[in-house]
Amino acid sequence: MLEYLKGLKWSYQLYNLFQKKALRHNLPLFKKYGLRKRYYSSISSQDFEHLEKKEYQPKLNSLENAAVFHKFNPETQNSLLGFKENGYAIIKDYFKPAIIDKINEEIDQMVKQGKVNFKYNNRKIMFAIHHSELIRNFAYDKDLSTLYDFLIGGKAFLFQSINFVHSGSEQHTHSDSLHMTTFPLGGLLGVWIALEDIEEDNGPVHYYPGSHKLPYFLNKDFDNVGTKWSLGKKAYADYEKMIEKKVAESSIQKKLFTAKKGDILIWHANLLHGGEAHLNKDKTRKSMVLHFFEEEAICYHEVTQRPALRAK
Fold it and tell me: CA-CA-CA-CA torsion for 227, 300, 215, 92, nearest 10 degrees?
């Protein structure tokens, strides 16, 4: 019965009805694009089929002339300037050990106090930024925030934080654009921060350089559109199988992000990535993931066809 109800759009709309404060920002955007939607309405890529296809683009020419760009070493500068071509950038040794240690201590303390807890098979701590000024300030690092604006091609705002401690996601290859979707497309950045050294045996992130140039694979691409009243009935495993097939058919090659404490990986909204298996259970796998939306984008979750709640 529960699974049946979760497949009905009205069940999400009923929940959204009580989230006006977190959803009302969409109303002027719906009007801008001529969408006849309430703040609580379901929304998916199908609602934009009739509109001109647009996509956010990084502003790398402007970045190259910005003061923040010149604070980074040549290796990082080259990585940032390759973002449009490669779909990712790496910043090594950005956060120093002292602040990383404070973040790890804060997370441990919040878990002990019950302020946060592990979800999704005891892997993830969601939205620690809402419970700690220290972590919130860490996530809103001034220079990085300026950098994110250039890379997203607009104004980036922090939507979500995820902390890992004992293991990583071990998630199969995917694009964030299925889970955190935008119109126009591409209005999302993923940021992964190593809170300790991550090696091949404790679950590094994997990613496919250049894969962001592939089409955005959304509900219609694995026959998961659904109807006016219900969500699509395909399992998430069907999406993963489709992505596996697309990867096999392409020339893209997998890389692992083995990282040192304080290193950062930033990726494009459509970059294919995932988490490797955590082989050495004697090791922890401390890291933080941040997801940023573009401020003027319509933000939603394609799979469940829900507008994204926006906490301020």
Answer: -150
- Altogether, the residues listed in the chain come to a count of 312
Contact between 185 and 55 under an 8 Å Cβ cutoff? The reply is yes
Residue 9 · residue 305 · CB < 8 Å: yes
E strand segments, 141-214: 156-164, 181-183, 188-194, 205-207
Q: What pLDDT digit, counting tens, does each position of 1-19 carry?
A: 667 667 889 899 999 999 9
Where do the H-state alpha helices sit in the chain? 2-6, 9-17, 20-23, 26-32, 60-64, 74-81, 83-86, 97-113, 133-139, 142-152, 176-179, 236-249
pLDDT, tens digit, for every residue of 175-227? 999 999 999 999 999 999 999 999 999 999 999 999 999 999 999 999 999 99
Residues 6 or more apart whose Cβ sits within 8 Å of residue 247: 173, 208, 211, 272
- Reading phi first (left if > 0) and then psi (alpha if -120 to 50, else beta), residue 70 is in alpha
Distance CA 76, CA 156 (A): 20
Q: How far apart are CA 141 and CA 15, in angstroms?
A: 33
Distance, CA of 300 to CA of 178 (rounded, Å): 9
Structure tokens at 176: 């964030």
pTM: 0.97
Which amino acid is residue 218, in one-letter code? Answer: L
The DSSP element (H or E) to which 124 belongs, if any, is: strand 124-126
Sheet holding 255-257, edge to edge: 255-257, 205-207, 273-275
Q: What is the CA radius of gyration of the chain?
A: 19
Sheet with 181-183, side-by-side order of all strands: 181-183, 298-301, 306-307
CA distances from 189 to 56, 63, 158, 265, 291 (A): 11, 16, 9, 10, 6
CA distance 33 to 161: 29
- How far is 302 from 283, CA to CA, in rounded Å? 35
